[in-house]
Write a structure and sequence with these properties.
There is one protein chain. Strand 9 and strand 10 form a beta hairpin. Helices cover 38% and strands 20% of the residues. The relative contact order is 0.09. The strands form 5 sheets. The protein has a 7-stranded antiparallel β-sheet, with helices on both faces. It folds into 3 domains: 194 residues; 149 residues, Glutaredoxin, CATH 3.40.30; 149 residues. With 528 residues, the chain is an alpha+beta fold. Helix 9 packs across helix 13, helix 11 runs antiparallel to helix 16 and helix 14 runs antiparallel to helix 15.
């Protein structure tokens, strides 16, 4: 009998040498038992599920509901931990508690998924082999045959099932640890090993059963809470208390994704959660600065470009210590990047760099992209708005009391002033540029475009408000309102400039950069 499942690939490219070896056993208190991991393996936390934004209008405000593929939500909920060793071998542990709920629609909200998951019909009956078989087939992502019962490690395991499959180098087992005394019965678990370059399947199976399954052990009562688990790392200064943190679904999913790895940790602050495997002093210093400054920056973002939606989003930041792990996570197509906002995953992903100041500038830039995506209901804002304000906040500073100051960018201001005539002439074209048109250019032209959109954002936020009768004060609010109504960034730009004399706008922009920068430097758009 075969069980086929939706496609959720857990495979990876392996190196030519793929010998499987195991490290000494460790206790995993959140899982409930001890076992050996792959030698030299790194944890590979499950990414956040890919979100699809659905927008609704209520009392002239946008409402956004994120929906997800049920399989991704289910997999993230049932997966305990994943590791990959230097040879490309993969070990995955899952807890068999709930069947994958069925829905008529392709994507569902977290709330709807939770209702389906908690339906009594979707709870695994530990005595039902059909339930176990169905779950294993769905989780393992390969077709499996009818299982073979095994007698292995009767001291620690009550039941062991081996699932034959035709996928080369793939081993799949279900097992149930033995209950101790009057303790609660254990759940069933599934373990998969993928060793894609292993040439001798029989030898691989024998090795795995002897060196993994036979080594599973139950911790003593006194040590059951000790072992491999992620810790919350608080790097707040003495006497500083975090605000109350509600259990937002993003927080819950993010914590769970790393809870069984002692080389990962999480840190939280109001509006944000940070996941990281960084263990350097430079990395901890970066987290301290992020925790100190993120709430103030978020308020500043909100002040300059107010949100169109009421959703209380939690911003997730994932910080890798090594660039190679970052590349593995974001994919080879983005290997060139130093970090990126991944809208589909709803997370900002970066890796540690030696230059602290440069990295903070980069993070402030990407954090703004993250904020604006959430604030505008995942509607794409035009590059002149989005990139312009992201560049604006690169040069922001936050005092110990949380005051945000936005200063001129010394490099971009020089570049803009040296090419001011060309910048003024390019303005109309840049206002209507798509992202492809904005990014698709030679290096100098792209630097020039960034300088121009930075200068435009700086002018609209710090120059235009000081002009007589403030003729351009409504451009950004009108843009936001039009974007909410039309869901089209170029139409929103056209609407925002409908009542603007572009020739006058260009003249004022030029005059500002030639004569009125001093007053703008003294003006604070974040003051009430």
């Amino acid at each position: 009998m075969w069980f086929r499942l939706p496609s959720l690939s857990l495979l990876c490219v392996a190196s030519a040498s793929a010998a499987v070896t195991f490290a000494p056993i460790k206790n995993y208190p959140n899982i409930g038992f001890m076992f050996p991991c792959l030698a030299g393996a790194k944890a590979t936390p499950v990414p956040m599920p890919r979100a699809h934004a659905y927008l609704f209008t209520d009392d002239e405000a946008l409402l956004r509901e994120d929906r997800f593929a049920p399989l991704e939500l289910w997999y993230n909920f049932q997966c305990c931990a994943r590791w990959r060793d230097p040879q490309g071998n993969r070990l995955v542990i899952g807890r068999i508690t709930h069947r994958l709920p069925e829905f008529a629609s392709e994507y569902v909200s977290r709330e709807r998924f939770d209702r389906g998951l908690n339906d009594e019909a979707n709870r695994i009956d530990p005595k039902s082999e059909a339930h176990i078989n169905e779950w294993v087939a769905t989780f393992s992502a390969v077709p499996v045959n009818t299982p073979e019962p095994l007698k292995i490690n009767g001291v620690a395991l009550d039941d062991v099932l081996y699932y034959p499959c035709d996928s080369s180098g793939h081993l799949i087992y279900a097992f149930r640890p033995r209950r101790i005394g009057n303790a609660k019965n254990f759940d069933w678990f599934c373990v998969t090993l993928h060793a894609p370059r292993e040439a001798d399947p029989a030898a691989l199976r024998s090795l795995f059963e002897e060196q993994f399954l036979a080594q599973i052990a139950l911790p003593s009562r006194s040590s059951k809470n000790e072992g491999s688990k992620a810790e919350e790392v608080s790097v707040q200064r003495k006497g500083h208390k975090l605000p109350d943190l509600i259990d937002h679904p993003v927080r819950v999913e993010a914590r769970k994704s790393v809870e069984n790895y002692d080389d990962w940790w999480f840190a939280e602050t109001d509006g944000h959660i940070i996941l990281s495997d960084v263990d350097t002093e430079n990395g901890k210093s970066l987290i301290r600065e992020l925790q100190d400054t993120l709430p103030s920056l978020r308020l500043a973002y909100t002040k300059l470009l107010p949100p169109l939606t009421r959703e209380a989003d939690i911003a997730l930041i994932r910080l890798f210590q090594k660039r190679a792990d970052y590349v593995n996570y974001v994919g080879e197509a983005h290997a060139w990047s130093g970090g990126m906002w991944m809208p589909e995953r709803r997370e900002l992903v970066v890796f540690e760099q030696e230059n602290h100041a440069v990295m903070m500038r980069f993070i402030r830039h990407e954090l703004f992209h993250q904020y604006l995506s959430h604030a505008y209901g995942m509607l794409a804002a035009s590059p002149w708005v989005n990139e312009g304000h992201a560049c604006l906040f690169e040069n922001a500073s936050v005092s110990e009391k949380g005051k945000v100051t936005i200063d001129e960018d010394p490099e971009r201001s020089v570049l803009l002033l040296e090419n001011l005539d060309a910048a003024v002439e390019l303005l109309p074209q840049l206002l209507q540029a798509s992202y492809k048109e904005f990014y698709d250019d030679a290096a100098f032209r792209l630097r020039f475009k960034y300088a121009l959109v930075w200068g435009l954002a700086y002018y609209l936020q710090k120059g235009a408000p000081l002009e007589r009768n403030t003729p351009f004060k409504n451009i950004l609010p009108d843009y936001a309102a039009a974007l909410a109504l039309t869901h089209d960034e170029q139409t929103a730009t056209t609407t925002a400039f409908n009542n603007v004399d572009l020739a006058v706008f260009k003249d004022n922009f030029r005059e500002f950069w030639l004569k009125r920068r001093g007053s703008a430097m003294r003006y604070d758009p974040l003051e009430p």
